[in-house]
Amino acid sequence: MTQKGAMPGIGTIALHVVVIDSDFYARHAINAYLAWDRRTRVVGKFARLDDFHDALGSGLFKVQPNVVIIDASDSATADRLRGAIGKLQAAIDGLNIVCLAPFADADYLFAAADSGARAYLLKADARIHIAWALCHVALLAGEDFLISAGVADEAANLRHPRLQKSRFLAQPRPYRNMTPRIRQAIELYAVEGMPQKLVAHEMDIEVETVRDYIRQAYDILDALHADDTAYPLDMHRQEIAFMRITALAIPDDSGRAR
Fold first, then answer.
1. How is the chain split among helix, strand and coil, in percent rounded to 5?
2. In angstroms, how far is the first alpha carbon of the chain from the final one?
3. DSSP state, 128?
4. Nearest to 45 by CA among 36, 57, 29, 37
5. Beta 67-71 vs 40-46: how paired, if at all?
6. What is the rounded CA–CA span in Å between residue 96 and residue 120?
7. Buried (b) or exposed (e) across 152-185, using 16+ Cβ within 10 A?
8. Which of 19, 26, 44, 94 is surrounded by the most beta carbons within 10 Å?
């Protein structure tokens, strides 16, 4: 399991991810957030599950996917979600299937857990933390099932062993001493990838002020994550800022978030 204080899986976790979501903007937003994280690489984006299976059958993947993210709401019913998960499992042995959903639904949640998916997360809970969520899925043991806070009430009321023992998606790490304006600047720059001039335009401030906010954010993040030691030496400071801003708490040896 991950060493206390270290980033999970830098240099060891290599997730080859397929994103299946009928929402164009959601599909590409997930891709953008995963592209910044060196532990994850998107090897395919599809609007429909059938498109993915066609690509798989045609041998178009240079690297075999080991994670598939699907929008649970794209399945018209919970039974169809169950069938979609089963078809994915039959296509690739040992595949980690992560269900994202725009809202909590007990029937869909039960179907995901019962049919062998590894996680069921609300999109609003995962957001910019999606790469960290996938890494937490990769660290799950056995039949562990990961859920986000937004579906906790539904999970507690469902009688399924995986749901009754489910793990919770960890909370984002705090931003101590970071003012809202500094946080806005560093998120626009390091998370959304905006150039400094565009950040200045968006915030209606001078570019030099943006640079000062970014410097302050770097110092705050360095102090907060002083125990991080697993970054590659060639990683740019902007990349490191992205990793730290999107970071989640690291599971302890029991698999519970600390």
1. 45, 15, 40
2. 13
3. G
4. 29
5. unpaired
6. 12
7. eebbeebeeebbeebbbbbebbebeebeeebebb
8. 19
What is d(CA 21, CA 23) in angstroms, rounded to the nearest whole number? 5
Residues 136, 180, 177, 5, Cα dihedral to 10°: 10
Sheet hosting strand 67-71, strand order edge to edge: 40-46, 15-20, 67-71, 96-101, 119-122, 146-147, 167-168
Amino acid in position 180: P
What SS3 class is residue 71? strand
Q: What would the two tokens of residue 143 be?
A: 């039949």
Q: In this structure, are residues 49 and 84 in contact, taking their beta carbons and an 8 Å threshold?
A: yes
* Whole-angstrom distance, CA of residue 166 vs CA of residue 155: 8
Q: Which of 141, 66, 72 is nearest to 111 (CA)?
A: 72
Question: How far, in Å, CA of 64 to CA of 149, rounded?
Answer: 31
- Say if CB 9 and CB 231 are below 8 A apart: no
Q: What pLDDT, in 10s, does the model give residues 160-212?
A: 999 999 999 998 887 878 999 999 999 999 999 999 999 999 999 999 999 99
Question: pLDDT of 230-251, one tens digit each?
Answer: 677 888 999 999 999 998 876 5
φ, ψ (nearest 5 deg) of residue 160: -145, 130
Tokens of 208: 């030099």
- C-alpha torsion 257→15→123→106, nearest 10: -70
For residue 58, give both structure tokens. 């045609």
* Residue whose pair of structure tokens reads 């996917």 in the numeric block: 65
What is residue 112's three-state secondary structure?
Answer: helix
